[in-house]
Amino acid sequence: MCGIVGYVGQKNCREFVLxxxxxxxxxxxxxxxxxxxxxxxxxxSFAKEVGPVNRLKEALEKVDYDGTIGIGHTRWASxxxxxxxxxxxxxxxxKTLAVVHNGIIExxxxxxxxxxxxxxxxxxxxxxxxxxxxxGEAIAFHKSLKAAIASxxxxxxxxxxxxxxxxxxxxxxxxxxxxxPLVVGVGDSEMFVGSDPxxxxxxxxxxxFMPDDSYAIVSSNHIEAYDFQHNPIVPQIxxxxxxxxxxxxxxxxxxxxxxxxxxxxAIENSILFxxxxxxxxxxxxxxxxxxxxxxxxxxxxxxxxxxxxxLDISHVKNxxxxxxxxxxxxxxxxxxxxxxxxxxxxxxTTVQLAxxxxxxxxxxxxxxxxxxxxxxxxxxxxxESMRLVQKNDIPVVCITNVAASTMMREAxxxxxxxAGVERSVxxxxxxxxxxxxxxxxxxxxxxxKGILSLQAMKEAEEQLSLVSEILECSIENxxxxxxxxxxxxxxxxxxxxxLGRHISYPFALEAALKLKEISYIFxxxxxxxxxxxxxxxxxxxxxxxxxxxxxxxxxxEKLLSNAQEVKARKGHLVVFAFEGQDELISLAGRCFVFxxxxxxxxxxxxxxxxxxxxxxxxxxxxxxxxxxxxLAKSVTIE
Length: 638
Ligand code: G6P
Fold this sequence. Notes:
Layout: E1 3-8, H1 14-23, E2 31-37, E3 44-50, H2 53-61, E4 69-75, E5 90-91, E6 97-106, H3 108-117, H4 128-141, H5 145-153, E7 157-166, E8 173-178, E9 183-186, E10 191-194, E11 206-209, E12 214-219, E13 222-227, E14 232-233, E15 237-239, H6 255-261, H7 263-277, H8 304-309, H9 313-317, E16 321-326, H10 328-343, E17 349-353, H11 354-357, E18 368-374, H12 380-391, E19 396-400, H13 406-410, E20 413-416, H14 429-448, H15 454-490, E21 495-500, H16 504-519, E22 522-527, E23 545-548, H17 553-568, E24 573-578, H18 582-587, E25 590-594, H19 602-620
Parallel strand pairs: 16-17, 16-18, 18-19, 19-20, 21-22, 21-23, 23-24, 24-25
Antiparallel strand pairs: 1-4, 1-10, 2-3, 2-4, 5-6, 6-7, 7-8, 8-12, 9-10, 9-11, 11-15, 12-13, 13-14
The structure holds 6-O-phosphono-alpha-D-glucopyranose.
Residues 327-330, 374-376, 379, 382, 425, 427, 631, 633, 635 line the site of 6-O-phosphono-alpha-D-glucopyranose (G6P).
């Protein structure tokens, strides 16, 4: 969480820093700040504003200071509310040293206490401010910057990407990386710093991804880097040939609705891309799918599709156990995907929440593969879980949407989705593309294991294409009814229950998450069979119960009984059903009906309407849809 931007070079930096901060707003938007060494008076000049980066931009329009070295920050509040005093940059007592931070400094209270006793005074209640005071104190005591850093490092715990701007060091930025990401873009007599290369990728494609546990003193022409044992590191500059995908809203009111409508293309592009990796599609011509130059397999000498994604083919052939680790919406997609791997590839599959997995006892299994799923490729819990698995010598393949993300770089292999930049905090096209990718991968593994024929694989690809079409068309079918009738009606309720069974259960969890995160209406996702064990006590005419059907006759019958239980208690039923499921449809107060598809793709078919329905209810409530309160798109802290 939190985004960092920095610049040192020959040009004024303010415009670059502000533009970079806007690109990093997905990491938090509680406040933003900028500081530079003012070229006129050679002192630190800064501005901070509560709220999104645009507020900071407006504030800076009223002043004219700028400089050739500066840093900026967009904050997701962890320690201290979203107030100006807690915004970054934070300073030392003399206000001659500024720092921006991404992460959490553990034990900061004890450090603060000691510093207070020694006569320091603090302006904020952030953990970050201690990092400013510690370095300020160390610089006063030690002769070299390196020695000062060494002393600070012995005191800092937790996770931190820190960038310091020091008045007495007008030509050098100091960068420290422990767990949270930090990258340097190497320009022509200028260096760019960011939490993500998106900050500078239109200015340089030469990137130094700082290794974990390293620090660097960066001037316009030079990077002097060290590990935490103070051994010099030769910076590995990689060519990052990735096009800058700046997504704008075009004619849409919000990124979320634009991204809902982009799902068909996101799925199609991803499948085309996988097919291309798979050696299919000789006549492939789409310009939409960008194959990044660094789609390699972490330099392993492996061949074919599995080699391209970083796996040894014999490992896939002998695969006996699969574990999937993810967080948030990605965890819901993973859960849905587990039915694919078990049902199609016959592999026992577990699905784990990264935040739980990383603190649970770890069991190695025979012929095991771990998949991590992360839209951003940066989620701290998923990343740490992945590292834990790798320490146990189990290969990890990461499915992500962000090329060169930390997870993609560190995983043994990766399957890079082609959903395109997702800007809205609430994940939509990533969710559906993750489901499609997992469906495709389950078939590909089944082919390799000799369970499925190539013809079956081809049919699966056709099914995915058909279902992505249904996803889009069904939104069009229900669009006006949802906007004119459903949105005003359902926005009046204060709580919802979402139910599913089997593969529609994780889908119900996703729907509940979507509703609560953007509309702030309380929503409870539950397995329909468990309704009678508690949640049924909540059923009344003021609590709509939304049921997502399945395309499995046995489970459908059970769901039908659950729907009747709700009806018998005067509950208002909203049903997402499939053609021919007349009994379920007849019970509903409101019903959405979808064409029948391959049974395991039932959730994907319902995805577009579910998201559109929730989007329109939220829009009616006039909520800040793309930037819901308290959330961030990339969660880089525990
Ligand atoms: C945040 C986002 C969610 C996302 C989750 C996991 O909570 O708001 O939309 O599902 O992180 O993110 P990941 O990038 O790992 O998929």
